[in-house]
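Give me the fold.
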Amino acid sequence: MGMAALSILWIAGQMFGLHIPDYEAIGWYLLFVCFVFFLVQTTVVSWLGVAGMLLFVLVFFFETPLLGVPPELLPAFSRRFLYDWLPLRFAFNIFP
């Protein structure tokens, strides 16, 4: 989990040549986001069982297209009822 986040950071910086101003701060942030999302998933699946896994499948299904669009461009229904409930939007909100 954490190695995947650091691998993505390394690939973006070294292989693709993107300028990353502070590897350490972004690396710690990515590790923190991965860990918190792991805790959220574990808690929901422990609490709800298989229904919790189905809930996360639906969240991932709706999350991918919505996170690529700025919230201001989303329709009111998507912004209010879908975007507000996405757990990974907090990871995306740190970047301007």
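The chain has a mean pLDDT of 82.
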